[in-house]
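Recap from last week: sequence in, structure out.
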Amino acid sequence: MGKAPPSGLAQRITGGIFLGIGLVNFLTAPLCMSDMVQEEVQEDCLKASLAVGGVFLVIGIPLIASGSAKKRRLLEWRARQNARLHSHLGLNIARDYGGLFWTAQF
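Predicted structure tokens:
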């Protein structure tokens, strides 16, 4: 049967966290230009928010894509394993009896 390929779950979770943090930085960047931030640091705040947001997006998106590709390979592997298993199962029904059979090859 072979060993199952990795699920990519850790990459998808990590990528989602990075993506979320990056989006939050991008969405809150305009606050840097508001009265909530001192005027002399507004520009630096904006640059930092956009830089951090961009870096986190650049890290998060590929992690999600890679994790999703691993999950797809795992699902394809499972489908092949299930197809192999189901090819050895059967149902035999006759007029006076019925049964489930399983065959194995060694």
